[in-house]
Design goal:
The structure holds 2 protein chains of 2 kinds. In chain A, the strands form 2 sheets. Chain A has a 6-stranded mixed sheet with strand order 6-7-8-3-9-10, with helices on both faces. Chain A has a single domain, classed as 3-Layer(aba) Sandwich (Rossmann fold). Chain A is globular and about 55 Å long. In chain A, helix 3 (97-106) runs parallel beside helix 5. Chain A has helices spanning 44-52, 74-79, 97-106, 123-136, 151-164, 181-194, 207-213, 231-236, 238-256, and strands spanning 6-15, 18-28, 33-37, 59-64, 67-68, 82-84, 169-173, 199-203, 216-221, 224-229. By secondary structure, chain A is an alpha/beta fold. Chain B is an all-alpha fold. Chain B has 2 domains: 17-306, ABC transporter involved in vitamin B12 uptake, BtuC (Orthogonal Bundle), CATH 1.10.3470; 340-420. Chain B has 18 helices and 2 strands. A two-stranded antiparallel sheet of chain B has the order 1-2. The two termini of chain B are 44 Å apart. The chains are: A alpha/beta, B mainly alpha. Chain A binds chain B through residues 52-54, 73-75, 78-79, 83-84, 86, 90-95, 98-99, 102-104, 106-108, 111-120, 126-127, 129-131, 133-134, 139, 142, 161-162, 164-165, and chain B through 3, 6-7, 9-12, 18, 203-204, 206-212, 214-215, 217-219, 221-229, 232-233, 236, 240.
C-alpha cells in the first residue's frame, strides 16, 4: 500500500478542561478528495488548525506523505507541500489582487527572503501569477486592491493564494460559505479545476457541494469521527442521519411543508 | 493569442507606466538636487538643505517599519545615533592615523560605515524585539531608546558624556577633489547619499522581502501559510531599516561633526515618527515630504515664535484625526481631483475647506500667541502688523472665538453636504 498523503493518528486537542478533539484517526490517500462534515462546534476548524500547524496537538501525530509534521511551525508545514485556506477571508487587504497571488508564488519558486531582486523582473513569478489569476478568473481584476473585491471574489482570491505555492495537499475551510447558488456552482467548478490531481481536504456545510465533490466523507461529531466512507455509505448510515444529516433533513422537510 | 494578451496585462503595468511611476520621479528628484546649488543658497539655507537630506533618509528608513511593515517604533533614533557616534569615532581615527587603512579612508564613504553599524545594531537589538509585533514591539523600542540614552550618559569614553564627541570632517584625504570643508561640498556629499538612499529604499520595496513586509503588515497569520516566517520577515526588515537610519547617521556625522547623547533620546525618535506620519506613511514619497516640512519648521518657525512646538503638536493631532494619509495623501488626492470629471465640484469643496481651515488657524494663532505672552507675565503684548492684542482686549477675544466658530461651522457644512451627495 502506498503512503497516504495525510495520516492522522490518535489526534487529541484540549483547551484547558475542554476536550475539543478526542482521538481522531484518519487516512487520506494521494489524489483523494475528502470532505469533513459535522454539526457546528464539532471541531472541524480546530482539526484544520491542528493539521496546518496553527495549533499544537495535545496528543497524537500527523504525517504528510509519511513525514511527521505535528510539532512543526505552519510555514515549515507549508514548505513541505500543504496549503490551507480560511473560513473567513484571510487575504492581504492593502495589496492588489496580483500582489496577493504573487506573494503566494514567491516561496515555491525559491525566492525566499531575497532583497536583491526586483519582483517585477522575475519572469517565472510573473508568469505563474498570471497563470493562476487566469485559472481562477481574476485576471481582469488583477490591479484592484484586494479589500475592494466583492465577497465572492475575495473567497476566490483566498483559494488562489492557497493554490499559488503549488502544494500537493490543499485544505479548504468552508470555501463556499456565504455565497449565492450561482456563486457556489462557480466556486465548485473552480475547486475541481484548481485541485485536479491533488489531494483535497475540505470542510463544508453545503451538502450539495460535499456530495458532489468528495470521493470520501468523514463525519466529525464532538471531536470524534463517527463514520468515514463513500458519499452513498454516509448518506445511508443511520448513526450519521441521527447525529447530523437527520437534523438537517428535518429542517428541509419543515421548510417545504 | 487572446490568452497571451490577457496574460501580458496581468504581468503588470506597461513599460511606459513603469517609466512614469518608477523612473521619472527619481530622475526629477536627482535633477532638483543637482540644480539647487546654482541658485546660490546662503550658508543657513545650505545647512538647512543638508539637514533635510539627512532627515529624508531617516524618515524613509523609519517608514520601512511604520508604513511598510506595520511596526511602530518609539526609538529609531538609537540606530541613527549609534551609527553617527561610530562615524565620528572614525573621523577621529582618520585624523589620528598616519597613513594605513584609516589614514587613506575618504570621509565621503562614512555613510557606508554608518549603514554597516546601523545594520549591526539592528541585528543585535532587533533579535529580541522583533519576536513580538504590535504593542509589545512598541514598548520594547521605547525601553531600548531609554536604555541607550542612559548608557550614552554613563559611558564617557564611548559617548563623551553630556558634551558628546566631535570630529573634523576635513581630516581625511581628498576624494573627487573634495576636502568636504566648505558647506557646498558637504551639500554635494549629502545630496549624493540622499539620492542613493532614496533609490535604494525604493528598490527595496520592490524585492520579494519588501513585498512580504507589506504582506506581513496586512496579515501576519496568512503569511505563515504561504511559506514565510513573519518573525523572520520583521527581523530582516528591521535590520534594513536600522541600516538606512545608520546611513543617515553617517551623513549627519559629516554635516554636524558632533554627536551627543541627545541624538539617541526619545525626542529625535518622536520627531521622525511625526515627520513620517505627517508626510503620509502609506505613500513612498510621504516621509520625504514630511521630512522637508518638519526640518523646515523646526529651523524657521522657531525664529518667528516661541510657541512653534505647540503648532507642531496641533498639526500632528490634526493630521492623525482628519488627514490620515498625510501631505502625500492631500497632494495625490488633489492631483487626481483636478483631472477627474467633477473637478469644478471638488475645487469648490476644497476652496471652502481651505477657507474654513484658514479661519481656524487665525483664531489658534491668536490664542497661542496671546496665551504664552500672558503666562510669561512680562507685560509683552502680541502685535501682529501693529495691531495690539492684549489678553484682556475685546478684539482679542473676538478674534479668538469668531473665526474659530465660523471655520468649524463651514467645515461641518462642507462635510454634511459631501455626505449627502
Amino acid at each position: 500500500m502506498t503512503t497516504p498523503a495525510l495520516k492522522l493518528t490518535n489526534v487529541h486537542k484540549s483547551f484547558g478542561p475542554a476536550k475539543i478533539i478526542q482521538g481522531v484517526n484518519l487516512e487520506i490517500a494521494k489524489g483523494e478528495r475528502h470532505a469533513i462534515i459535522g454539526p457546528n462546534g464539532a471541531g472541524k476548524s480546530t482539526l484544520f488548525n491542528l493539521v496546518s500547524g496553527l495549533y499544537t496537538l495535545s496528543e497524537g501525530q500527523v504525517e504528510l506523505n509519511g513525514a511527521v509534521i505535528s510539532g512543526k511551525k505552519p510555514f515549515e508545514i507549508n514548505r513541505m507541500g500543504l496549503s490551507r485556506s480560511f473560513q473567513v477571508s484571510n487575504i492581504f487587504s492593502n495589496m492588489s489582487v496580483r500582489e496577493n497571488v504573487r506573494c503566494g508564488v514567491l516561496w515555491s519558486l525559491g525566492y525566499g527572503y531575497s532583497f536583491l531582486r526586483n519582483v517585477g523582473n522575475l519572469k517565472e513569478v510573473q508568469e505563474k501569477t498570471a497563470h493562476i489569476l487566469n485559472e481562477v478568473g481574476l485576471l481582469d481584476k488583477a490591479n484592484l486592491p484586494a479589500a475592494l473585491l466583492p465577497y465572492a471574489d475575495q473567497r476566490t482570491l483566498e483559494i488562489a493564494i492557497t493554490i499559488a505555492g503549488g502544494a500537493e495537499v490543499i485544505m479548504l475551510d468552508e470555501p463556499t460559505a456565504g455565497m449565492s447558488h450561482s456563486e457556489t456552482d462557480r466556486a465548485v467548478a473552480l475547486i475541481e479545476k484548481a485541485t485536479k490531481g491533488k489531494t483535497l481536504l475540505i470542510v463544508e456545510h453545503d451538502m450539495g457541494v460535499v456530495f458532489g465533490l468528495a470521493d470520501r466523507i468523514s463525519v466529525l461529531v464532538y471531536g470524534e469521527i463517527i463514520a468515514t466512507g463513500k458519499p452513498e455509505e454516509i448518506r445511508g448510515d443511520p448513526k450519521v442521519r441521527e447525529a447530523y444529516l437527520g437534523e438537517e433533513a428535518d429542517e428541509i422537510e419543515g421548510a417545504s411543508a | 493569442m487572446t490568452d497571451m494578451t490577457m496574460q501580458s496585462t496581468a504581468l503588470g503595468p506597461t513599460s511606459a507606466e513603469k517609466f512614469r511611476q518608477r523612473v521619472l520621479p527619481f530622475v526629477l528628484f536627482g535633477l532638483v538636487l543637482a540644480i539647487i546649488p546654482f541658485f546660490g543658497p546662503s550658508r543657513t539655507t545650505m545647512t538647512l538643505l543638508n539637514h533635510i537630506g539627512i532627515n529624508i533618509v531617516f524618515a524613509l528608513a523609519y517608514n520601512m517599519l511604520l508604513g511598510r511593515a506595520g511596526l511602530l517604533s518609539f526609538g529609531h533614533a538609537v540606530y541613527l545615533g549609534l551609527a553617527g557616534y561610530f562615524c565620528v569615532h572614525i573621523l577621529n581615527w582618520i585624523d589620528a592615523a598616519d597613513g594605513g587603512f584609516w589614514g587613506n579612508l575618504p570621509v565621503f564613504s562614512l555613510p557606508i560605515w554608518g549603514f554597516a553599524m546601523g545594520a549591526l545594531a539592528g541585528a543585535v537589538i532587533g533579535w529580541p524585539s522583533c519576536r513580538r509585533a504590535g504593542t509589545a514591539f512598541a514598548m520594547i523600542s521605547l525601553g531600548v531608546a531609554e536604555l541607550m540614552a542612559a548608557a550614552a550618559f554613563m559611558f564617557d569614553s564611548l559617548f563623551g558624556g553630556e558634551m558628546g564627541i566631535s570630529g573634523d570632517r576635513m581630516s581625511g584625504p581628498e576624494f573627487l577633489g573634495m576636502s568636504l570643508g566648505p558647506l557646498d561640498e558637504v551639500y554635494w556629499f549629502v545630496a549624493f547619499w540622499t539620492f542613493v538612499g532614496v533609490v535604494a529604499m525604493f528598490m527595496f520595496t520592490r524585492t520579494p522581502l519588501g513585498k512580504l513586509s507589506e504582506a506581513t503588515r496586512d496579515n501576519p497569520e496568512r503569511v505563515q501559510f504561504i511559506g514565510y516566517d513573519p518573525t523572520r520577515v520583521r527581523y530582516l526588515v528591521f535590520i534594513f531599516s536600522a541600516a538606512f537610519a545608520g546611513m543617515a547617521g553617517g551623513m549627519a556625522a559629516v554635516q554636524d561633526e558632533i554627536f551627543t547623547p541627545e541624538s539617541m533620546s526619545l525626542i529625535p525618535s518622536g520627531a521622525i515618527l511625526i515627520a513620517a506620519y505627517v508626510g503620509g506613511i502609506r505613500y513612498f514619497s510621504g516621509p520625504i515630504m514630511g521630512a522637508i516640512l518638519m526640518t523646515w519648521m523646526s529651523s524657521n518657525l522657531s525664529d518667528y515664535t516661541v510657541g512653534w512646538l505647540l503648532y507642531l503638536g496641533l498639526m500632528f493631532i490634526t493630521v492623525v484625526m482628519f488627514v490620515p494619509d498625510g501631505i502625500a495623501g492631500l497632494v495625490f488626492g488633489f492631483w487626481n481631483g483636478i483631472r477627474s470629471p467633477n473637478r469644478s465640484h471638488l475645487m469648490a469643496k476644497w476652496a471652502q475647506q481651505a477657507v474654513g481651515v484658514a479661519l481656524m488657524i487665525v483664531s489658534i494663532i491668536v490664542i497661542v500667541e496671546v496665551a504664552f505672552r500672558w503666562s510669561e507675565g512680562y507685560g509683552e503684548v502680541f502685535e501682529p502688523w501693529g495691531m495690539e492684542l492684549p489678553h484682556d482686549g475685546v478684539i482679542t477675544w473676538l478674534l479668538a472665538i469668531v473665526p474659530l466658530a465660523l471655520g468649524v461651522a463651514l467645515l461641518r457644512r462642507v462635510a454634511r453636504k459631501s455626505e449627502e451627495v
